[in-house]
Amino acid sequence: MSTSMTIYEVVPHASSFWRLRINGAHEIAFPNRDIARAAARVRARRHNQDTGGHAEVWVARRDGRMDREAVFVGGATGALCAEWRRQ
């Protein structure tokens, strides 16, 4: 089981686009914030299910501050897995 941690960040890019940044490097463009947030949660959950690694989703607020939106911890392949999401 891997104990790695992967951070998924949703950050603004240009005036109307958003990017999903994975561990501060790999970036994927999205047309709006909601689609980028959903993609980040899906990828983080899938990473956790496949590897058992810790995954967090951080989303930039409109004022520039970052909020932790989701945390996925636990093991892969049927082991206990927990998810936390901001309401």
Question: Helix and strand layout, with pairings?
Answer:
Blueprint: E1 5-13, E2 17-22, E3 26-30, H1 33-51, E4 54-60, E5 66-74, E6 81-85
Parallel strand pairs: 1-4
Antiparallel strand pairs: 1-2, 2-3, 4-5, 5-6
Question: Can you put this structure into words, describing what you see?
Answer:
The mean pLDDT is 83. The chain has one helix at 33-51; strands spanning 5-13, 17-22, 26-30, 54-60, 66-74, 81-85. It is of the alpha+beta class. It has a 6-stranded mixed beta sheet with strand order 3-2-1-4-5-6, with helices on one face.
Largest sheet: 6 strands, mixed
Strand content: over 45%
Count of beta strands: 6
Low-confidence stretches: none
Indicate the radius of gyration in whole angstroms: 13 Å
Q: State the end-to-end distance.
A: 30 Å
Order of strands, main sheet, comes to 3-2-1-4-5-6
Task: Work out the helicity level.
Answer: 10-25%
Structural class: alpha+beta
Shape: globular
Compressed to H and E, one letter per element, the order equals: EEEHEEE
Query: Overall pLDDT, averaged?
Result: 83
So how many helices?
1
Q: What brief labels describe this structure?
A:
alpha+beta; 47% strand
